Amino acid sequence: MDTTTRHLAKSSSWLSKSRSSSHIQLHIRCVPFILDRELMAAKSGKIFKLLKENLSGDISHLLMDIPTDPETFELVVRFCHGRELKLSPENCIPLTCLSNYLGMTENHSTNNLLKRALTYLQQRILPNWNDLVNSLKASEKVLQEAVKLGLVDACFESIIEMALVNPHLLGELIRNPSNDDVDDSDSEEMKNVYRPNARRRLFVLDRKSEDLNTLSLQLYEPIIRGMIHRKVPPEYVAASICQYAKRWVFSSSTRGDDVLIYRRNSRSEVIEAVERLLPHEQGLLPCTFLFEMLNSAIILEASSKCKEGLEIRIGKQLDQATVKDLLIPSQGYAKEVEYDVECIKRILKSFYGNYVRSDISGLITVAELVEDFLVEVASDVDLNTETFTLLAEMSISASVGTQTSSDGIYRAIDVYLDTHRFLTESEREDVCSILDCHKLSPKAREHASQNNRLPLRVVVQVLFVGQLSLREILTKEAEGCDDRLRKVAAREEEEEAVRVGGCEEEVRTEMERMGSKVMELERECDTIRREIQSNCCGGAKKKEKGMWRDMKRKFGCTTSVINCDCHVKRHKKVHPRH
Description:
Elements: H1 3-15, E1 23-28, E2 31-36, H2 37-43, H3 45-53, H4 70-80, H5 92-101, H6 113-125, H7 129-139, H8 143-149, H9 151-165, H10 188-191, H11 198-201, H12 217-229, H13 234-250, H14 258-264, H15 267-277, H16 287-299, H17 304-316, H18 323-326, H19 341-353, H20 361-377, H21 385-398, H22 407-419, H23 425-432, H24 442-449, H25 456-535, H26 541-554, H27 561-574
Antiparallel strand pairs: 1-2
């Protein structure tokens, strides 16, 4: 005899003694249910125990606090009456909680509902991303009980593990406009994007992954915190947070099932939670998104800590902002200016106070950004001169040491003076005191010299600077001409020196050659003299002839002494002595 049969036999023995009817009447959220005593007691240990302890049979008042909804309770009743039960991601966690509450365990009855629901959760839901998200959404109806049983933590753990393996499940990456010039194919970001291999792609269903941003804040926040703690790539976490903020903060419309969550999620609470979850790495989120968050935080009157945190994050990448981002409308009935200039001042202070890069290009970019911002806000009639000059001074101080011009500041001053025509001469001079006339371009100086909105002192200063600039230009031109003449003269002198130096070198070479020849002849004459002196001291006749032969050879004479002697002898023979 199985457990169910034993419980039926045991319960029938005392149920038959009860004077009450064989049914239990319950109301679940105003929905009436009529339950069979024996069938419910056979599967539910709690009902079995209550019926056993209350022989009167009326236990409906003891079951008024069942933590469930009519749909889930109806499925349990159908299961107890032996009808087919179809589990799904949407009903698995509510059924698990209800079956645990009713004591539908294996100790009470074999193949009971609690075991079937847990098996389905483990085998079908936990390995599947979409089913997990849908199950968590359904668990919000019984969230407290689900957390107590550990079902929510199990779902959290599975989602985080899947995000570690495939972060692309969190959604598409955010394209930051400041990084558009980087080639996607070569960026490390694209190299790290999850791509399933060919074998895995054969079994992946082509359907869109469920977004985590459909969850309520009380489920979404702990999941993201777990991902940050487990080192899920921050760019994907940032993309998910951005989508969540767009859905629950920036969107003004709700759809179908989102209405309940939208009512539960206070927009100010969402934006405060999003600010806490935002990664601290610079550049992961566009500056425009951060400004949109700040604007919403101001409108929704979020906490000061939330607004301050967003201002600091914006200050870290202010050089990526646009003028449109800086135009934050003032809030409140007693607003004095059109735009929240005080907020921009705090952001600028944060930017300049935390700027640690050696490259000054960021400072120049922000200085130009503030100049354009001044041009936009200068047309506000309620903008006082102190605030205007303070913003201008912050822009100027940031560009000290650079070659930037003052044309942007001049444009802002011109617009401000045109809008505030009621200013006195001294007030206009105070506004113009921030203008550096020496850094104006020639075109700006020409315009300023004819601008009747400027104080007379400033116009005179502009004209004086123009004359100084003209004098400097003429002086430089004259110096340039003198330099060119000096260079030409120096070049001609060098050429003359080279030419004269060449002639002297040739003469010196020729004299050295002649001197060497003279020395050679002196040596030869000295040799001849020594030979003559040695022959005068009684040398042999043969040697004397040899000496003269050598001398005649040296002086180019080819006639021999022997031939001359022979000629004389023959002459004597021809003319005999008488």
